[in-house]
Amino acid sequence: MAIKYALYDNQMTSDPDDHMAQVQHDQTLTLDNIIETMIGRGSTITKAEALSVLEEFFDAITEAIKNGQAINTELINISVSLKGVFTDSNDRYDSNRHHAKINVQAGTRLKKVLSELSFTKTEASKPVPTLLNFKDVASDSSNDTLTAGGVGQLNGSRLKIDPADNDQGVFFIASNGTETKSPTTIRNKPSELIFMVPAGLASGNYKLEVRAKLGGKGIRKGQLLDELVVN
């Protein structure tokens, strides 16, 4: 399947006619989506087994990084570097002046994919909030449970809202179309929102939607792919 791209004005050059390409992803997959694809191909492993193995894999990777080891796999290569200025050869690491950075590069298997990609041009779409993962703090679950009156954590991109604007915010849309807005935003960043889940939500399924003005333009809406359930 061809990858879609659209052209937008290039603000990095002085040429008013210059444009730059931006890939238009049809969908953003979570770990659960990847596992569903794995077991959907006829694999003999269960979803629980796949999750368990991947959790062990993630733990092994993070432990290696903490131990000062670099990672080299067919999929990705991971290493750590230090940023910041050291005053002379006798200077030492100071967390107030220096910071660590995780470097991730494509491995040989991902690099090979580049030669197999095909592209098709499409019309430029307006940017919208992208909701990647919702964590229900009370139940410590992701993209599943919704606890009325609890705290929710949402990660993604273009999520920042203006709490003073009644049209912007985090909305919970019930199966019957009823909309309830989160009453309080605790953390308000482009990549993360932490907010209160309305206490009055009735039992049932809900769509989670963020409404925000991007670049001073009109209200743009983005929804989480998974439905959330209030028990």
UniProtKB/TrEMBL annotation:
InterPro entries: Bvu_2165-like_IHF-HU-DNA_bdg (IPR049893), DUF4469 (IPR027824). Residues 3-123 form the Bvu-2165-like IHF-HU-like DNA-binding domain. CDD domains: Bvu_2165_C_like, HU_IHF_like. Residues 134-217 form the DUF4469 domain. Signal peptide: none annotated. It holds the Pfam family HU-DNA_bdg. This is Uncharacterized protein.
